[in-house]
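for the record, two folds in this file. i put them one after another cuz i was lazy. first one right below, seq on top, structure tokens after. the second one comes after a little note so u can tell where it starts
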Amino acid sequence: MRVRSAIVSFSLLLVGCQRPGPVASLTPATPVPSASGTPNANAPKALPPEIDPALEKGQLRAYYNKKYTQQEFDAVRSVIEELFPNFTPAEKRQAISEILAFSYVIFHETEYHKLDKNHAALRRHEKTLVDAAKRYQVPPLAVMAIVSWENSGGVTKVSAADAAGLGQMTDGAIEEAHRYAHQEAGRLRLEASNPAGVEPMAKYLESIEFRHQKAARVAKLPDERFVPECNLEDMVLFFRFLLAQVGGRVDHAIGSYHKGAANTDDILYDYLTRTEGQVVPPGSDRTDFLAALGRRNVTYLTLWNDPRSRQMLNGLRTMDGDVTTPENRSQALGDESDIYPWKVLGSLAAYRQGAEYVRQQVQRYSGPQAEAETRGLPVYESLAALKKAIQEKKLVQSRAPLADYGYRSGYPSEFVSYSDFITPELEGYLFSLVMRWRKTANQGELMLPVKTLMNTRALSVGGYGIFSRVQMKGVTCLIAPQDLPEEARAALRKVLEVDFLNDRIYRSTLDNGDVLITLNPRFGHQFLAAYNKYRADR
């Protein structure tokens, strides 16, 4: 959506949103972890390996372990160490891996997403945001992460969902922030041992609508959400409300900012009732719910690693826990709700490294995802290179149940004979894919319609671009699902969707309906396990 931009004097904006004289700090009703950005005096503990070292086999895992630079790793680690000091070393290590895994999503530019512009907008208003976070005792890094991702590069940007401004606040979120401000004013007075000491803050909270409306009038803007100081104050208060809903857990509050507090409640309640037994549903009294959350120490990673919860996060199940179908799709999450925490935390990590770092990362992830995510893997650009890789057992001839939709025909036989040589990891994945597809469709003889495995056709003509070149690494498969009967096509689409949402593959759909599947090297050990399971010649 294209919106009108507006340049507004900072001094004018400040009139309606500045703090009126000395104002008492808002004491949190629920303790929240400190995230001031001050480094811990103690050196961080050593982190465990991402997977069991005994599973570190195969060329894809070897590639993956060198894929990210030390700067990338340390940038993300510092964010995790500071925001989530109570995570176990294993949780910290996994959180780092999850954030790095979505680097392409974070840095790749689109018509609507340009991270450098987002960061420039945050940089202009960082002090305002941090001051508001400190005033309301909200972890500054958490709200910085959200704004670094959400703002779309401008103070007057409005999304298709009518979310506006630096914090991309909806009218509903504004109302909730204001309601919470009044509630906190009442709580301050009720709990105060020195009523006079909290009265300035209580009055300041109660005046939020008046202050913000006045600021918009002075700035001659139609919506208070376009006033940076007002938008950010509302955003911080809204985040504080979200923190209170989950007992001060920053990771769940970040997730709630995107998918909503009610949906977070549904997923957490579903998990707790399966692991704790009877739990009082969260409502006006959240005591039992929060106590169960504490006993189980349910982090966002807990949900991410639990298959059913992960499906509720990524839309494969509805908020009632039912398997998603076309009929109930409106009751399921979407819009990358599952990876939202990883995106915003990755954005923050990059922001703290500076504009030049972001520029380099944007360039690194500027091409097609299949190429960007496998850059550095061997490209077999000659028959001699193919023969050498086969001799070294880096490539194997596929025996997976595939239907030839053109990958063995139409070009010289000397090249055709190498067209079905692929990495053992891809062979394992293809076997697994077809077995699960057959089970889903309840059709035991289905064959995967393959157009390209090793792209020796491009090799035979001696000219190719990025799209052809990425298909000369043995980790991709171009299929033609559009040529299948509807029932088989729907079943295949469903299985591929699961693999895509569980991050095992990258998927690109072409204009003619073809689908390019590219393996995620991070899970090379799982693909090798499938290869060893299905191949008789191991």
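(here's the note) second protein begins now
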Amino acid sequence: MISALLISLVASVALPQGPAPEALNFAHFPDRLHAFVWRNWTLVPLDRMAEVVGATEEDLLTVGTSMGLPVPPNIPESQLQRTYITIIRANWHLLNYDQLLVLLGWDAAHLAYTLQEDDFLFIKLGSLKPACPPLAWAPPSEAAQARAAQIAAQVKGLFGDTAGVTPDPPLSFVEHLSAPVNGGSEETGESLFHPRFCYSYFALYGDPLIEQDPFPENYLKRLHASGVDGVWLQGVLYTLAPFPWQPDLSVKWEQRLERLCELTERAAAQGMGIYMYLNEPRTMPLSFFEQHPELRGVTEGDHAALCTSVPQVRDYIRESVARICAAAPKLAGFFTITASENLTNCWSHHRGNECPRCGTRNPGEVIAEVNASIQAGIDQAGSAARLIAWDWGWNDTWAPDAIAALPAKVSHMSVSEWSLPINRGGIESTVGEYSISAIGPGPRAQRHWKLARERGLNTLAKIQANNTWELSSVPYIPAVANVAKHVAALRDTGVTGLMLGWTLGGHPSPNLEVVYELGKKRGDGTYPSAEEAMEIVATRRFGPAAQEVVGAWTEISTAFSEFPYNGGLVYCAPLQMGPANLLWAAATGYRATMVGIPYDDLDSWRVIYPPEVFIAQLDKVAAGFDAGVRRMQDAAESLAEPEFKQAVLKEHDVTLAAYVHFKSVSNQALFVLLRNRLNTDGLSETDANALKEGIMEMLRAEKRLAEEMYHLRAKDSRLGFEATNQYFYMPLDLIEKTINCEWLLACDWPQKSQQ
């Protein structure tokens, strides 16, 4: 997991706190102890759970089985290493920090680093820690035992005696994707687009060159067969080369570079390049600058930037990159983010005016200078590595100056669909994040690419071929026609390469294969149309059912273009949790968090859309996916060939999972809307009864969807997973949702509080 080096960086930093509101009460369980046991039954070994609450394993085994849970499965260390974010999220409202540390088996520095640096986890959890009094073992009361027996009867009635223990156990997909490749056709032929690179479907984000293998050989073979020719991972310079001002920060840098060399050579043997993401230079604690005040730039919280207007800082960047390139000569390249994510250069968070040096300089010049320092390191090593400057976060007024100042060898990349005008349900807006529902390219990217081409720079498009935050809980969104139309349109823009996804979207898929086909020139000098590329891929995958599947993809894509898109909406709505997101009898008062915990915060879910429009648009999307599901089901039933039949049914299940998620968000939004209206004063009895009946209908609908999603997840361990968020839900979370719905169905309405 996180290396000792990185933990040392926060050894003296307190665990982040923020506000400490009262933790939520999960009233559908007998008490908090039962909730703790349920939530961790398939996540954490029983002995670790017992240590947390001061119980024996037998005590907790009795509690678990009293709720209908089977004997807990063996939980290997490899699972714990890939589900720690899931564990933290599941216990955020149950345990205080001290007990959470015991559950994880970590020290405070490890947890502090993870919350602060593992893809902004503390922000994803709401930038707060709910107040949780210590949870201690006590024998369950008679009332708790009676409630547990009710839960057991419901669980066994719906899910049998093996609830939560599934045919495809958690993370089985890692083994499936890493297994030897048996036959199958490999993609051949040159593409208009090079590189075509994506993130690993299951790589750990924190310290990938120390942690588990992000790119197993057979996984790379599968990606290459899908038309991908590159993968990326993040790098942090002071972990990859000696940090001149504090060398102890760079412990194990040699080991990381050896590992990088090994990975790049292995990838190259598979026809794949490895690209390193740099977001540099990283900030240092304020205490660091007591010894090095001349390096200090913009301050943010208890850290400050290493000012890149200082020549020594640029030298550090150059020397570090040169060392990386020399150690890994087969490294394909780097890409940079220089105006977003972590605070790096003084203008990276748009506050360079606060620096006495950078404040007098053009922001575009500062950003270009960072990229120039990296290119200088590549050149110093005599490396063929390519540098891609991504304009993510660049202020539109800075971009022309930044592009004008980039070195001639640097390539420029822009998010293709950014600033694309859209109208969804009569609400006009623009795309300000990643989207498959909107078909690019958009005006911002085209404007920036034009400036870059005028300088003679190569240009790349950042797209999302498989997933976006519109839905990341399936391995790919089968809106293949939208992806195909987007890539076909990019052929006329002059872009020569594609970044296929952020941390989401690294699973082999028909989407990726279609992208590849669209870049292949035919013998007559033409390229296939979007429809022709889909037919080629569908015929290869689904045989005689190809036309029906292409029809389903097209119908799905048309419906997906109705998605109520907004940048805040895709971060906050329960799109990733889907039917695992709990319902609440009264308002929780918690704000939805960024791709974390949606709660019941309808206003943050819908953002610019009126509630009724938000719900109606999601229903349109769900209806299109449902039509695709039925079309694929009919196609599968008509097939005699087992191989093609199985392939269509797998596509059917991914589509059905997407339908369940979108329909569930609509249901949840309507539930919250009706619940809130029921809690208003002055309702007539007729209106109140109508609202209550609507609430009951939504509870029954959500229970059905949670059951359906459970059975889908039981046979496909990919569902609910995304690399940087790990599992958004486990099978037991979906069963918990059915318990939650049954509990609320039995409540008296309206409810004025959670207690």
